[in-house]
Design brief:
The complex is a heterodimer of chains A (252) and B (284). Chain A is mostly helical. Chain A folds into two domains: 89 residues, no CATH class; 148 residues. Helices cover 46% and strands 11% of the residues of chain A. Chain A contains eleven helices and six strands. A three-stranded antiparallel β-sheet of chain A has the order 3-4-5, sandwiched between helices. Chain B has nine helices and 13 strands. In chain B, the strands form three sheets. Chain B has an eight-stranded parallel beta barrel. In chain B, strands 5-6 form a two-stranded antiparallel ribbon. A two-stranded antiparallel sheet of chain B has the order 11-12. In chain B, strand 3, helix 3 and strand 4 form a beta-alpha-beta unit. In chain B, helix 7 packs parallel to helix 8. The longest helix of chain B is centred in the middle third of the chain and has 18 residues. The interface between A and B is large, with 45 and 53 residues. Strand 1 of chain A pairs antiparallel with strand 8 of chain B, so a sheet runs across the interface.
């Protein structure tokens, strides 16, 4: 085993003894000095995970989160020194984490938090001029293809994740209802906003992500939810600077 | 070896480690602060507020980019993706300086987020020098290499740390970043003289000095074990060692690092003022 393989193994597994051949500089064994590195690694990476998932920490408490973070670190140490990316697999890890299986909503709540951080660091892009809608002939509007901003994210869930997020981040937010919720994350300026989508909204946004034209996207949304409100959906995307580009299908 | 004429252009003034919560305060009144240092890995997103703030700050202040994740002392090869990210950052920002650590943090593709130690042998020296050559070529600029805080020593080491750093600087043309708090922490922990370390250090290579606070713990024998925590004011003996260093090196860019339990701006600016005072007493 190389020196760094020894360190790597002993840092991630406190049950292992410290590597041999380490001293205190005066030819005495290093002893507990090695634990400084164990503590630094565990503490700093727990903190990094807390920064991305503050609601998960609030939901399970500081001690529970610290245990969870240690288990996650051992199973999935960061693959990159860019720590804002740490925890990409954390939602899936939560889904399969037996001790917390009774809190089924944790995984999707973590997906929402992960998406908020991804949105925060996403590329900037100039937003679409809304005049494009008034300048396009009404019968050509269904053929308009809209590009969403790089900061836009969609998180669909069987759990009320929008309400759970609000309840844990806003004073006086109402108790979460027992309903599934889809969340659109937009970034009007620099701060990502989680927006609760009405029925059909997630289908519509998914169709836009897939590159479908406006008419087709609205059609599939209406199939899912007959009362889907296209004007309201477009209004939200425009007011939150979530659209950056529009092209018109050339007539066949 | 790289052309030394393109050496770093930080002013011999106090700087501080930039924290986003100080953004407005720094722009309205930077006080004695003449430049800012950022951790490279915090500015590797595609956009958003961090990049926008950094772009704006760089119009007002010289910026030092301080990498904390390249793992220059690693046994494996340097991560080509991370090298590319560092290059991209330096390309658009054109910082006044780039620095990294004599340490490792990645093994077997796991990033451990700490500055882990390496033995000082002729074998590790060649590896570190090779990694620095690669980095300086990728960035097309010379770097500064920082001395670590040590909590333990390796039985197999055959070089002293100042000699090891001097030899690497000689071979690669890199400059050095002298962290005076790290010297004090290591000297206390391993039982050597901090002044002796400074006397042995190639001060002509020093392009920047770091100052930071440390915590005190104890080892198995009850001996003091100092922890490089960056979470409080610079300790008095470290200020004394800073004066000792400046008297021999002349004025250098000097950074206050305060990364944990970050204080309000006036507290941080007061630390920078103390560094400014020390710098002002040194003949150029």
């Amino acid at each position: 085993m190389t020196r760094q393989a020894q360190f790597h193994a002993a840092i991630l597994d406190p049950a292992q003894p410290a590597p041999p051949g380490l001293t205190d500089g005066q030819n005495r064994p290093a002893g507990r000095r090695f634990s400084v590195y164990r503590n630094n690694v565990t503490h700093s990476l727990t903190e990094a995970l807390e920064q991305t998932f503050p609601v998960i920490r609030k939901l399970i408490g500081a001690e529970g989160f610290a245990r969870l973070a240690r288990a996650y670190l051992r199973a999935h140490p960061p693959a990159s020194p860019v720590l804002s990316r740490y925890g990409a697999s954390f939602p899936a890890f939560l889904d399969g984490f037996e001790p917390l299986a009774h809190l089924g909503y944790l995984g999707d709540t973590a997906r929402l938090e992960r998406a908020l951080v991804d949105s925060y660091h996403a590329a900037d892009a100039a937003s679409l001029d809304p005049a494009v809608f008034s300048e396009t002939a009404p019968d050509a509007l269904p053929g308009l293809r809209l590009t969403l901003a790089p900061s836009v994210r969609l998180v669909r869930s069987a759990w009320p994740i929008h309400a759970i997020y609000r309840f844990n981040t806003e004073d006086g937010a109402p108790q979460p209802p027992a309903t599934p919720q889809d969340v659109l994350i937009t970034r009007p300026d620099y701060d990502p906003r989680p927006r609760l989508l009405p029925p059909g909204g997630a289908t519509f946004v998914t169709a836009l992500f897939q590159g479908h034209a406006l008419g087709q996207a609205a059609g599939t949304a209406t199939e899912t939810a007959p009362d889907f409100d296209l004007a309201a959906a477009l209004g939200l995307l425009l007011s939150d600077n979530a659209l950056i580009h529009a092209t018109l299908d050339s007539p066949e | 070896m790289l052309d030394q004429t393109q050496q770093n252009t930080l002013p011999p003034a106090p700087g501080v480690g930039y924290k986003p919560q100080h953004y407005a305060a720094i722009l309205s009144d930077p006080g004695p602060v003449g430049w800012l240092e950022i951790h490279a890995e915090n500015y590797m997103g595609d956009g958003g507020r961090p990049i926008a703030q950094l772009r704006h700050l760089s119009e007002r202040f010289p910026i030092s980019v301080h990498g904390v994740g390249l793992s220059i002392g690693g046994e494996g090869r340097l991560d080509p993706d991370h090298l590319a990210r560092l290059r991209h950052l330096c390309d658009w920002l054109q910082p006044a300086s780039f620095s990294e650590h004599l340490a490792w943090s990645t093994h077997d593709s796991a990033f451990l987020n700490d500055l882990l130690p390496l033995p000082y042998t002729s074998e590790t020296l060649l590896r570190v020098a090779d990694h620095i050559d690669q980095l300086q070529q990728a960035l097309a600029r010379p770097m500064l290499l920082e001395n670590p805080s040590s909590y333990l020593a390796f039985a197999e080491s055959t070089w002293s740390e100042p000699e090891f750093l001097a030899e690497i600087a000689h071979r690669t043309g890199c400059g050095l970043l002298l962290d005076v708090n790290n010297v004090f922490v290591s000297a206390t922990n391993l039982g050597f003289s901090p002044q002796g370390y400074i006397d042995a250090f190639p001060l002509d290579r020093v392009g920047e000095i770091h100052l930071a606070g440390h915590d005190t713990d104890h080892d198995d024998h009850g001996a003091p074990l100092l922890i490089d925590s960056h979470g409080r004011e610079v300790a008095d003996p470290v200020w004394t060692l800073f004066d000792y260093t400046l008297a021999r090196s002349g004025p250098r860019p000097a950074l206050i690092e305060w990364d944990n339990d970050v204080p309000d701006w006036p507290t941080l600016a007061a630390e920078a003022a103390r560094a400014a005072h020390a710098l002002a007493l040194v003949p150029a």
